[in-house]
Structures are given as structure tokens and as C-alpha cells.
Write a structure and sequence with these properties.
Elements: H1 2-13, H2 18-25, H3 29-42, H4 53-71, H5 87-98, H6 104-113, H7 132-144, E1 150-162, E2 189-197, E3 203-207, H8 213-226, E4 232-237, H9 246-260, E5 267-270, H10 283-295, H11 303-323
């Protein structure tokens, strides 16, 4: 369009007729005459070659937010008889909802820059908590406002893992295939409960016989002893029954009362995650890394041997982050990448 306007002006200056200009630039004579009128009024300014940067940025952010808002709802919400989106249906809804035509190229760019892509579905955990956004804001606020005399922990249970032969991804010579029996006799099982400190990235754990309130209280006692110099320990965990049990609540209440009366040690503050939002619990990635490292492709002979391997993995992990300090989690600390006000539901890539 810019080229056509400039060429039309140059050809008119060189005394070409209207028909010749129309053929050369591929525009209707009426359009060319309108350009000449704008040129007489505004001069060369009528050819706007670049949108002001701040206006362009604001317009792009607005388009991006609108597209994401559309993608967070199924097509049926807008009366389209489809179960998944296409570029054409997104453009159709965008035009109808905002009374603005969005170029298809711009839509593709928005989709690319917002990390959306066309993929086959995989099973993921999503939160159905009606107060999801409010609860996430509370957790993030507590995390980001944690003071030097405080510590913030992600807590969860791990396992159980059966002691048997496991498969997994491994390097192997071409033509060969590892095999794992479908039916195996278990040689025992292991499970544990652990707490990941968000600032030091240090893990505290213990193996347990069952996932109950007693196991949780023992872990809290371990944290109270290990972080006795702290004024307060902030705990976040999944909204499951054992975490909200009366025994756990009573233990926290009694501990905090004792500290208020002068007993040494930290107080505890519980900040629960939204229901069905395990994907927000950063410690899950630690368990996943452990499983890939010492459970996949394993064939331990006993429960004790598997526990020793898990123990060694966690000890080495703690030692690594003592020498290479890094906070736990990736995006959760970044206020720009983790804007809860722009999120419609619990769909996250990597924490």
C-alpha cells in the first residue's frame, strides 16, 4: 500500500495519465484520486509508514490478550459446532466479538509468541477450583514477600513405588530392545514425604509407611528443628484430606501458641494451593527428576536398595544447589511471565 501511494505520486509528477497510474499500481482510479486529495491536504504525511511504537505495542498486547481469552474457551461457547479451534474459527469469533478484522498472519504470530501450538492432546492436571485465581495470588504473594528470617516450603508425598523392574528411555544399540515383564512380583514398595525450601532449593525428606497425619507432623517437626533459627515457616501443599486433618491443624496451633509464650523455634503458616492443582507444587518436578534418574530402568533387589538410591540422589541434589545456589522453580518467581490476572485456568508448561 505504501509503495502504491508513493509510485502513484511519482508517476503523477512525471505527467503519466490516471489510467497508466491505475494499471501500474493495481488500484482503482477513485482510490488514486482520493490519495491525491489527501496529498494536497496533508503532504507526504498521509502515507503513514510506521505506527508510533507505544501505540503499536499497546495494540499488539491488546490483540494478544483477546486471542488468549478466546482460546481459553471451547468453540461451542461462541456457537461454533466444533470441539477444537482452527485459525478461521478464531478469526471469525475475533471479528464478531471485537468488531475488528484480525489478519491471519497476525493471528499466527500471536499464537507463536504465546507458546501455543497445534499438538495432539495429552492428559494433564487442571484445576477446577472456583477460587483458583484468588488462591494462586495468595500463594504467590506469600512466596514473593517471604523475608530473610522466614522460609517457604513446597510439601508433598512421593510414591508409592513398587520394587520391581522398570522400563524407561535409555541409549541402546540399534536392533536391540529392552523388555520389561508385564506381570511382576513386587519386592516391596517405598514412599516418602518431602519439603522443598524455595529460596535455598534444599530438600528435607523421610520415608514413610503410609500417607497420614502422623507422617506430616513428623516432617513438620523435622523442619522445626532444622530451621530453628527462622522466625516463621510458610507451608504450601495440595488441598487433600490429610493436609487439612484436625491432627495437623491442632499440632500447628499448639506449636504457634508455645512459640508465642516464649518457646524457641519458628511459627508455622499454612497457605494451601487450590484444589486439583498439583502442577503448581514445585516439588513435583523434584520427584520427576528423581524418578528419571534412579527409578526408570532400575531393577533393585530390595526395598532398602531402592531407598538407598533415592537417598543418595536427594543428598547429591542438595549438595549441588549448595554449591550452585538457585531458587526452586522457574516462572513462578517472574511477575511478567506469571501474571495471574491474565490466566483463565491452570494450564502451565514448566514451573
Amino acid at each position: 500500500n505504501h509503495w502504491a501511494k508513493a509510485t502513484a505520486l511519482l508517476m503523477a509528477f512525471e505527467k503519466y495519465c490516471l489510467f497508466e497510474i491505475s494499471v501500474a499500481v493495481g488500484r482503482a482510479p477513485n482510490s488514486i484520486l482520493r490519495w491525491f486529495g489527501l496529498y494536497r491536504k496533508k503532504g507526504l504525511k498521509f502515507i503513514e509508514t510506521k505506527i508510533a511504537e507505544d501505540r503499536r505495542k499497546k495494540m499488539w498486547e491488546e490483540r494478544t490478550t483477546r486471542v488468549i481469552d478466546i482460546l481459553h474457551s471451547p468453540p461451542t461457547t461462541y456457537g461454533i459446532n466444533r470441539t477444537s479451534w482452527t485459525y478461521d474459527t478464531i478469526l471469525q469469533v475475533y471479528q464478531k466479538k471485537y468488531n475488528e478484522n484480525l489478519p491471519k498472519g497476525s493471528l499466527k504470530r500471536v499464537v507463536k509468541e504465546t507458546n501455543y501450538t497445534w499438538r495432539h492432546a495429552r492428559k494433564v492436571l487442571t484445576s477446577s477450583d472456583p477460587d483458583y485465581k484468588e488462591k494462586v495470588k495468595v500463594v504467590l504473594s506469600a512466596l514473593r514477600r517471604t523475608k530473610e528470617e522466614e522460609a517457604f516450603f513446597f510439601i508433598d508425598e512421593m510414591g508409592p513405588y513398587q520394587v520391581k523392574k522398570y522400563g524407561g528411555k535409555t541409549l541402546i544399540e540399534k536392533g536391540n530392545t529392552n523388555t520389561v515383564p508385564i506381570k511382576q512380583e513386587s519386592r516391596g514398595k517405598i514412599q516418602a514425604i518431602a519439603a522443598l525450601e524455595a529460596f535455598s532449593n534444599q530438600l528435607t525428606w523421610q520415608f514413610i509407611e503410609s500417607k497420614n497425619a502422623t507422617a506430616i507432623i513428623k516432617l513438620l517437626e523435622m523442619l522445626r528443628t532444622k530451621y530453628s533459627e527462622k522466625r516463621r515457616l510458610i507451608i504450601t501443599w495440595d488441598a487433600i484430606i490429610t493436609h487439612n486433618s484436625s491432627a495437623v491443624k491442632e499440632w500447628v496451633k499448639i506449636n504457634n501458641l508455645d512459640v508465642s509464650k516464649g518457646k524457641s523455634g519458628p511459627k508455622f503458616k499454612i497457605v494451601p494451593l487450590p484444589s486439583k492443582s498439583q502442577f503448581l507444587n514445585v516439588i513435583e518436578s523434584v520427584f520427576s527428576g528423581m524418578k528419571r534418574a534412579v527409578i526408570h530402568n532400575s531393577d533393585y533387589s530390595s526395598k532398602e536398595e531402592m531407598e538407598q538410591a533415592v537417598n543418595r540422589h536427594f543428598v547429591e541434589r542438595n549438595e549441588f544447589y549448595r554449591k550452585n545456589p538457585k531458587r526452586a522453580g522457574h516462572k513462578i518467581w517472574d511477575k511478567e511471565a506469571f501474571k495471574t490476572e491474565n490466566l483463565q485456568g491452570g494450564l502451565f508448561r514448566k514451573m
